TrEMBL record, chain A:
The keyword Nucleotide-binding does not apply. Keywords: Cytoplasm, Initiation factor, Protein biosynthesis. This is PCI domain-containing protein. PROSITE patterns: PCI. GO terms for molecular function: translation initiation factor activity. GO terms for cellular component: eukaryotic translation initiation factor 3 complex. It comes from Pichia kluyveri. Residues 238-420 form the PCI domain. Pfam families: eIF3_N.
From TrEMBL, chain B:
The keyword tRNA processing does not apply. Residues 62-71 have a biased composition (Basic and acidic residues). This is Translation initiation factor eIF3 core subunit C. It comes from Pichia kluyveri. It holds the Pfam family eIF-3c_N.
Length: 440, 910
């Protein structure tokens, strides 16, 4: 990338917005992604700062050494911490091991029931009281902190099943959600997300509305890791299926409570909604997006919102080329969007542009059309390919005129009158019958 | 109490000899007084009422004396229970006589008025005197009152001998009610009342003892109380117990020596006190400082006291003393007295105001110099105020008082003053100049409070003081442009204040200044959002939010201002707020509308301003009504803002008597929003929105887009009639169009319709010229500020208007000509409307996309020129057929309903 592009990429980089909403452990991969536009050292520094307060000593050491090549080991405060961790870890490990063993024993497993209270009674007879259960939570937190996400997820899950402290359960669910994302267990994370949504979107949400807002913000940001999960997206694009996950995301994020949260506190999420809608060709949701973009225009814009703004609000098509170029940069650098299949995504964008342009210009030769979309992303061949592929567009081979493939009859006055009146006679007969039956 | 006076009084308990002796003595006094009028004056100085009376009665003095002589004969026959000493035949005997006649209504002998008053009283009794004078009635009422009390207490005394509890109870109830009216007559608790309760107290104690005895001795032969008697006894016991407790000292003195106590006249109490004051004032010195201060405190709230005198004394004392504590005490008192002095006037005179301001700043000086003394609202009460309160654990001496209240009051007084004077006079400007002094006091006070109140206590009642003062500070600056805010911030010479948000320097860069003021307002408001949680917190929060929004509006930060209103949800609860807050809300809304207009958001402008402008009482909604404006307007039916109306108008009638600045129901002139401006802005935005729509409806009504628009409008109309924002504009438009003769524009509103006629002919140039040359733009807030590109507000505004006119006239052109013209070159359009081709393509594109016009854009291959191609307009027969089909369909629908619901529809129709 040349310097101009890097500058642009930095301008539209959203990583700093994520700091407020995403856990340190998740920031790590986000920061990793920044090496393309920032100096490696700078990124390392940031990562070190992010991880400074966690227990991931191994990674810390690596980072520290790469920042300070002359040093041999971490400063003492971090080394001491390692000891602290072990001091903390060992007793907890001992006591929870016992608890887990009891829980795993055949006798308990066979007697477990759906009812949480009964289960609690059952294990109480085995010496597992509330303190022991709380230890599970503590240990889970510790394991998470030192980067053992699988273990943390497991511990927190056990805690969730046994505890009755609703606050801690919510925290544990959040913790497990993140652990599952980090350990790559996406299916499990999806389940947890559903659980979390049950709590957050509950009509009778217990806490204050500000807490609810915060939680929702948190969920919006963290769930992007699931919706834009690389493996899932790849799998589906290979199979040629529409991505259900992203469709699901469109539905959630454009529901009234989420879109208003996004408008109020994190308008940058619009980028992901727009890309998801365009990627999945979920064009019926465009209307909502246009509205949101129009509202938020004054405080947030990026190439994606500019695209929407120019296509559907201002109808200014002359800037599309520039926007397309910018979008390309974003697709490259954005942590989430670059998981999408680039070709498909771009094809969709260009098709949308062509359709919008043709709505206003009706008939354009392929050369004229090409002027609107000419950019790094699109050359003439690609344009042809897209037009040929699309069901909605048609091209007259003789003179290379492209037009929308819509029904001619819609604007035909004879047809409309026919449409409106064809049911009249049938309906009238029906009434007559009804009336005669009633009168008898 | 001076012994001089009460020896000369008499009471019914004194023996005849005594009364003889006293009366002689008194007579002697009288003579003395009569001869030496100077003396009279001196003794009268103590009581304004009586001296007034004397002046009034002086002229008729001699006549009355003559009259008196004649009456005396009848009198003797009327009242002969104690006329032992009415044997003297000279004038003085008459007086003497009358005095002893009404011996129990003991009035002190004071000057010549003394006997005239007796005269009247007696005349009233004998019902053949008609020298009625209002002044005298007051006197006699007091005496009657004392008489009555005495009667009642005598009754009680008599009844107590026989222990008839029911009757005693009744009598005591009467006495009780009566006795507590003593304040009306400006005397202390009447002695006869004390006497009665002491007697009863004794009696009850005795009967209690008796009962105890009875318990010991089972064979009691005492009379058994009936149930009603014992009931009233019990009630009485409770009451007496309470009363004795309240007047413990008095009762004790009475019990010590009942006779002597009774001999003291009730009136004498007050007179003595005042005499003391008089004496003390003669020797103002540091030694008896607390004595004087105490006497002044005691005399507060009483009638007939010369407050100015007190103020002078206190000022002298202030010069004399050096002790911090004493100074604080004196200033505290002095400031409250200053406010009290003017409590009856409509507003404080500016001199008084300045004096008060000086005193407050002196007080703050003292407190800043000696930080061991702290004035706070929640100081523990100090029983002995002659000594400074002991230092608390932090080494601070806490003194009760409230600087924030002083400053609040100071600010209110200035506002009230401004409301009452003519805004066009130089006096107004002079008064307004004091605003900066007030502001610096507010800042000092805020700094002081921030110093004395720890951050942990911000959200406790103690911290409420800070909130109050912050509100005042906001009130002082929120309506000012940035430059003025910075001036007022810099104007106060306390640069050493750094514990509160403040602007200390003016930047050359306007943007930096804006940033600074933004920060200032934000930090002040966020303090209130964060820490205000008392009873009145909702008012403070609302006020802060509204002022913040107002500030952002006038500084052209529309979105911020709008978001504040959105996020705080003020509009949801504004109905229930007090009128002052509602006025502020309306003001903030109007400014928001103006800000939207300046940003070129005409649709928002129209919606925001609609309710205020179309109301009949815009002026009052904005708190800009005239003070003496009396009205009997009917309540009207609208929503949001009109609640304000009702509240306000109901209160209007009381306004003249009440404190009008209260609650900010009215705002002083310099904070007014120009109503003509608001009006014009609303109508211009309506004009710009409506003109294309009118064209659309009349020329393109058959297109889908037009139908959609129409349907939307109908829908919103059926949902809420008030949402139809353009109606009022259309109504006025109709009205002007119906005029046979339309002269050249005179009013500003006429210019709008002038512009309308130009705009409807696509003449954007003329119409924008008319609009941008309106004189009223000078009144637009922020019009003179210069932005980063060196353009001033007026230029920007004109630019915006021209641009909007171009856009809207292009739209109108398209609506009118679509289907008539076949094709048109974009280039030509661009020339005609002086817009670049992209803008034109954008606008036409949006029309095509919304299906408001039928047509498309075309690019010519040869020279790349663009054209707009309009499709043929529907021909007449098509239109008719379309209309017919919709009608047939509606008939079908009706039939459907009819067949399902029987004859209901028919009945409804009828």
């Amino acid at each position: 990338m040349d310097s101009k592009q890097i500058e642009l990429a930095r301008k539209f980089d959203l990583t700093n917005h994520f700091f407020d909403f995403v856990d340190r452990h998740l920031m790590y991969p986000l920061l990793d992604n920044l090496v393309t536009i920032y100096d490696v050292k700078e990124v390392d520094n940031l990562q070190f700062n992010v991880l400074k307060d966690t227990y991931m000593t191994k990674e810390l050491k690596e980072l520290y050494l790469s920042i300070n090549p002359n040093e041999k080991d971490l400063p003492t405060e971090y080394l001491n911490r390692e000891n602290d961790i072990i001091n903390e870890l060992v007793p907890l490990n001992e006591s929870t091991k016992e608890t887990l063993n009891i829980l795993c024993s055949k006798e308990i497993q066979s007697n477990l029931k759906q009812n949480k209270i009964e289960n609690r009674e059952l294990i109480k007879t085995r010496g597992i009281d509330d303190d022991k259960i709380l230890e599970l939570y503590k240990f889970g937190k510790l394991q998470y902190n030192r980067g053992d996400y699988v273990m943390a997820s497991d511990l927190l899950n056990n805690f969730k099943l046994l505890s009755i402290n609703q606050d801690l359960i919510l925290k544990a669910t959040c913790g497990k959600f993140i652990s599952d994302i980090l350990s790559g267990d996406i299916e499990e994370a999806k389940n947890e997300m559903i659980n979390l949504r049950d709590v957050i979107d509950n009509r009778n949400y217990q806490g204050s509305s500000i807490d609810q807002l915060k939680l929702r913000n948190w969920l919006i940001h963290n769930s992007l890791f699931i919706f834009f999960n690389e493996n899932d997206l790849k799998k589906q694009s290979i199979n040629g299926n529409i991505n259900l996950q992203l469709l699901n995301m469109n539905e959630i994020f454009l529901s009234s409570s989420y879109i208003s949260t996004i408008e109020a506190s994190c308008p940058w999420i619009l980028r992901y909604i727009i890309s998801s809608v365009l990627y999945t060709k979920d064009f019926k949701r465009l209307k909502d997006i246009i509205k949101a973009v129009e509202i938020e225009n004054y405080e947030y814009n990026d190439p994606f919102t500019n695209l929407i703004q120019n296509l559907f609000i201002d109808f200014k098509f002359n800037k599309l080329n520039e926007i397309l170029n910018n979008i390309e940069i974003l697709i490259e650098i954005d942590f989430f969007i670059n998981h999408l299949s680039k070709d498909e995504f771009i094809n969709n964008i260009i098709e949308l542009i062509i359709r919008s342009v043709l709505k206003i210009y009706k008939k354009l030769s392929i050369n004229q059309l090409f002027k609107f979309v000419e950019s790094n992303l699109c050359d003439l061949n690609k344009l042809n390919e897209i037009i040929n592929k699309s069901n909605e567009l048609k091209i007259n081979i003789e003179n290379n005129i492209v037009s929308l493939n819509d029904d001619e009859n819609i604007n035909n006055p004879y047809f409309t009158v026919y449409e409106k009146t064809k049911a009249l006679s049938f309906k009238s007969n029906q009434f007559l019958n009804n009336a005669s039956i009633n009168s008898i | 109490m001076s012994s001089f006076f009460h020896t000369s009084y008499e009471s019914d308990t004194s023996s005849d000899e005594e009364s003889l002796y006293y009366s002689d003595d008194e007579r002697y006094l009288k003579q003395l007084q009569n001869k030496k009028s100077v003396n009279i004056q001196i003794s009268n100085d103590t009581d304004d009422e009586s001296s007034d009376e004397e002046l009034l009665s002086d002229s008729s003095d001699d006549e009355k004396i003559k009259l008196k002589k004649e009456e005396d004969v009848e009198e003797a026959s009327g009242d002969d229970d104690d006329d032992d000493n009415s044997d003297d035949s000279d004038d003085w005997s008459n007086d003497d006589d009358s005095d002893s006649d009404s011996d129990d209504s003991d009035a002190p002998p004071r000057g010549r008025s003394y006997f005239l008053k007796k005269d009247f009283l007696k005349g009233g009794n004998d019902s053949d005197s008609d020298s009625g004078d209002e002044k005298k009635i007051v006197k006699s009422a007091k005496e009657k009152y004392l008489d009555e009390l005495l009667n009642l207490s005598n009754n009680i005394e008599n009844l107590s001998m026989v222990e008839e509890w029911v009757k005693i109870g009744n009598e005591f109830d009467k006495l009780f009610k009566l006795a507590y009216k003593h304040n009306q007559y400006h005397i202390l608790i009447p002695r006869s009342y004390i006497k009665a309760i002491s007697i009863l107290d004794d009696l009850i104690n005795k009967s209690k003892n008796d009962n105890d005895d009875e318990d010991d001795d089972e064979n009691n032969n005492k009379k058994v109380l009936s149930s009603s008697e014992s009931k009233s006894l019990n009630i009485l016991k409770q009451k007496i117990k309470k009363e004795v407790k309240t007047y413990n000292d008095e009762v004790l003195t009475y019990k010590k020596d009942p006779e002597a106590y009774e001999n003291i006249k009730d009136d004498s109490n007050l007179i003595n006190n005042e005499n003391q004051d008089q004496n003390n004032q003669l020797i103002v010195s540091a030694e008896n400082l607390f004595f004087i201060v105490q006497s002044i405190i005691d005399s507060r709230g009483k009638k007939g006291i010369d407050l100015n005198e007190h103020l002078n004394t206190l000022n002298k004392l202030l010069d004399l003393t050096n002790s911090t504590y004493e100074k604080i005490i004196i200033l505290n008192l002095l400031i409250s007295l200053r406010y009290e002095l003017n409590s009856k006037d409509k507003f404080m005179s500016i001199n008084e105001w300045l004096l008060t301001l000086n005193d407050i700043s002196k007080l703050l000086d003292i407190l800043d110099n000696d930080k061991s003394y702290v004035i706070t609202e929640n100081a523990p009460s100090n029983d002995n105020f002659t000594k400074p309160p002991p230092a608390n654990e932090n080494g601070l001496h806490l003194i009760g008082g409230s600087i924030s209240s002083f400053v609040e009051r100071l600010s209110d007084e200035l506002t009230t003053h401004l409301l009452y004077i003519d805004p066009n006079s130089s006096e107004y400007i002079k008064t307004l100049q004091n605003d900066s002094k007030l502001y610096s006091i507010i800042i000092r006070c805020q700094s002081y409070l921030t110093r004395i109140i720890s951050i942990d206590n911000y959200s406790k009642p103690e911290g409420e003081q800070i909130n109050r003062i912050i509100i005042k500070r906001l009130e002082n600056i929120y309506y000012k442009p940035i430059k003025l805010i910075i001036f007022s911030e810099l104007n106060n010479n306390n640069n050493n204040i750094n514990n509160i948000p403040k602007i200390n320097s003016s930047e050359i860069d306007e943007n930096l200044n804006k940033l600074n003021t933004n920060n200032l307002i934000d930090s002040l408001c966020s303090h209130i959002y964060k820490y205000s949680n008392g009873i009145s917190s909702s008012i403070y929060r609302k006020r802060a939010a509204l002022m913040q929004s107002y500030y952002y509006s006038i500084t052209n930060q529309f979105f911020k201002a709008r978001d504040i209103l959105h996020l705080t949800h003020v509009q949801a609860t504004i109905h229930t707020s007090e009128p002052g807050v509602q006025v502020l809300f309306n003001r903030a809304i109007v400014q928001l509308g103006l800000a939207a207009f300046r940003s070129g958001l005409i649709e928002e402008t129209q919606i925001i301003l609609h309710e205020v402008v179309t109301s009949q009482h815009t002026r009052d909604l904005l708190g800009q009504g005239r003070i003496y404006f009396n009205n009997n307007l009917n309540n009207q039916t609208n929503n949001i803002v009109n609640n304000t109306n009702n509240n306000q108008f109901n209160n209007y009638n009381n306004l003249n008597t009440n404190n009008i600045s209260e609650n900010g129901k009215f705002v002083p002139f310099h904070t007014h929003v120009n109503i003509e401006l608001v009006d014009i802005v609303y109508y211009i935005s309506s004009l710009l929105i409506e003109v294309p729509l009118i064209a659309l409806q009349s020329y393109q009504s058959s297109t889908n887009g037009a139908n959609n628009l129409l349907n939307n409008e109908l829908q919103s109309q059926s949902q809420n009639i008030n949402k139809n924002t353009s109606r009022s504009f259309k109504r006025i438009l109709d009205y002007t169009e119906r005029q046979y003769f339309q002269g050249p524009p005179e009013e500003t509103r006429d210019y709008i319709f002038d512009a309308y006629h130009k705009l409807i002919k696509f003449n954007w140039f003329e119409s924008s010229k008319i609009l941008s040359n309106l004189k009223v733009w000078v009144m637009m807030p922020g019009i003179s500020t210069i932005n980063e590109n060196g353009e001033n507000g007026l230029e920007l505004l004109k630019e915006m208007l021209i641009k909007l006119c171009k856009f809207q006239s292009l739209k109108t052109w398209a609506y009118v000509n679509a289907g008539i013209i076949k094709n048109y070159s974009i280039k030509k359009l661009s020339k005609r409307f002086e817009l670049n081709e992209d803008d034109i393509c954008g606008i036409l594109g949006s029309l095509i996309s919304n299906e408001e016009i039928k047509g498309y854009l075309k690019i010519n291959d040869d020279n790349n020129s663009k054209w707009i191609i309009f499709e043929n307009k529907e021909n007449g027969i098509n239109q008719i057929i379309r209309g017919l089909t919709t009608k047939v369909n509606s008939i079908l629908e009706r039939n459907e309903k009819l067949s399902l619901g029987g004859y209901q529809i028919m009945l409804k129709k009828k």
